[in-house]
Amino acid sequence: MGLPWPIIGAAAWVFPGLGHFLLGERLRGIIVACTLIPLFLAGVYIGGVDVVDREKDRLWFAGQVLIGPTALVVDYVRSSNKPPNHSIGRVNELGTLYSALAGVMNLLVILDVVGRTEEENTSSVEPPGGVDRRRTV
Amino acid sequence: MTWFKLTAYLGVHRSFIDPVEMHDATVAIWLIIPLIVAVSLIYKTLKMQNLKNLALETIKLSGYILLLIFIAAVALFYIVKYA
């Protein structure tokens, strides 16, 4: 019996890839971390901190915050950036898209890791040679 | 005077705080490629049981997505221009 799924899911939210890492899927975790974190940071680099805006772009922020506390930190930096430096046009669009997609992809990662945890915990209580839950894809 | 205010008044470009300068709009189109590759890589990482052929599968999926975007762009171009 491993860690319960809420802890694994929370770990995957706090640091993308950590959930898989805790499950023993280290390579998967490293690939996720090395893809999603740079993707989010690339969005912030392109559009500046203004791409993460909890007050004006609530819907985008809902996607961005799925990447973890990093989005909250970026939003805090944006709100304390006085005078505010707004990014507009194509760079803002691209930066927002990059960071929001990173967050939404992390939602997939969280759901995947929660599913794997459930599978692992269920199979650990079944007798050997029980139901084969291996993925076929 | 805070660091933010000081650098803002001095007009210094602050990476990750200020947006990058993109004078050429065509550059933005090429930035879609790393986005597509990242999405394909994550999708395949989660979907594949064995990560042995991950690179090849990622390239294939990225190609499909790019092709679909190109077809959609051509279709939308003709709809906007002639419809």
Topology of helices and strands:
The complex is a heterodimer of chains A (137) and B (83).
Chain A: H1 5-14, H2 18-23, H3 26-47, H4 58-64, H5 69-79, H6 89-125
Chain B: H1 3-10, H2 25-30, H3 32-47, H4 54-82
Describe what this molecule looks like in 3D:
The complex is a heterodimer of chains A (137) and B (83). Chain A has one domain (5-124). Chain A contains six helices and no strands. Chain A has helices at 5-14, 18-23, 26-47, 58-64, 69-79, 89-125. In chain A, α3 (26-47) runs antiparallel to α6 and α4 crosses α6. The two termini of chain A are 26 Å apart. The mean pLDDT of chain A is 88. By secondary structure, chain B is mainly α. Chain B is flat, with a radius of gyration of 20 Å. In chain B, 71% of the residues lie in helices and 0% in strands. Classes of the chains: A mainly alpha (137), B mainly alpha (83).
